[in-house]
Specification:
The protein has 223 residues and is of the alpha/beta class. It has 7 helices and 10 strands. It binds adenosine-5'-diphosphate and magnesium ion.
């Protein structure tokens, strides 16, 4: 559901890495993300897209500045509070899928939803049908293709019914045909649960389908 409600507020966010403290990957970034919006984060390799996603999703601390999720300061919270926000409100899809290799497709799909108490068998069956994964449920990640693995990762994320979904180059390891399928599926599913989407991508086709395009260059965000 799109609304004017600000779900992420980024204030004067800067990031430098130890050993290279004078070089800022992100410089004084300010951004409000409204609920239900879909945002493409573009920029050259090394421009800081992953760093930015990792700080917003609570994986990596900023050097300075603040990230507020629903008015809660993520990086002034305890590790435990941040873990709860991540588990209950956020989901992440990676370029390299990051499925759990010791679990079947079916178990992977339910993994995060079960952790956050949002498991819904009916929804799972519907999504599996839509994603064309019905015949692969008992297989393990190394027994399915890259395109199929990414569809499993998307279902796992959507099943957790996140408020915000982060995706870091989700089609970066896929060929054109698989990219098309994954982009359509991701957007349809995001729409159906009304989540906010922030995706780092090099795909112009993908970016053109989203509400907002933001470009990272020299540590700054430009729209
Ligand atoms: P992108 O995702 O746009 O390719 P990254 O966010 O991965 O860019 O990287 C941005 C910059 O930050 C690069 O110059 C990279 O070398 C640096 N960087 C990223 N992670 C680390 C790290 N853990 N330690 C040191 N430098 C890092
Ligand atoms: Mg990256």
């Amino acid at each position: 559901m799109k609304s004017n409600k600000v779900i992420f507020k980024v204030k004067n966010l800067s990031k430098s890495y130890p050993g290279n403290e004078n070089h800022y990957t992100l410089k004084d970034i300010n951004l409000n993300i409204t609920q239900g919006s879909t945002i493409a984060l573009i920029g050259e390799s090394g421009s800081g897209k992953s760093t930015f996603l990792n700080i917003l999703s609570g994986l990596e601390p900023p050097t300075r500045g603040e990230v507020k999720f629903n008015n809660v300061s993520m990086w002034n919270s305890t590790e435990k509070e941040r873990a709860l926000i991540r588990r209950n409100e956020l989901a992440i899809i990676f370029q390299s899928f990051n499925l759990i290799n010791s679990l079947t497709v079916w178990q992977n799909i339910g993994f995060h939803a079960r952790l956050s108490g949002k498991w819904d068998r009916y929804l799972a069956e519907q999504l599996i049908e839509t994603a064309g994964l019905k015949n692969l449920l008992n297989r393990y990640p190394d027994q399915i293709s890259g395109g199929e693995q990414q569809r499993v990762a998307i279902l796992r994320a959507i099943m957790a019914k996140p408020k915000v979904l982060f995706a870091d180059e989700p089609t970066g390891n896929l060929d054109d045909q698989n990219s098309k399928v994954v982009i359509k599926m991701l957007l349809d599913m995001i729409n159906s649960i009304g989540a906010t989407l922030l995706v780092a991508t090099h795909s112009k086709a993908f970016a053109s389908k989203l509400d907002i395009k933001l470009k990272l260059k020299d540590g700054k965000l430009k729209s």
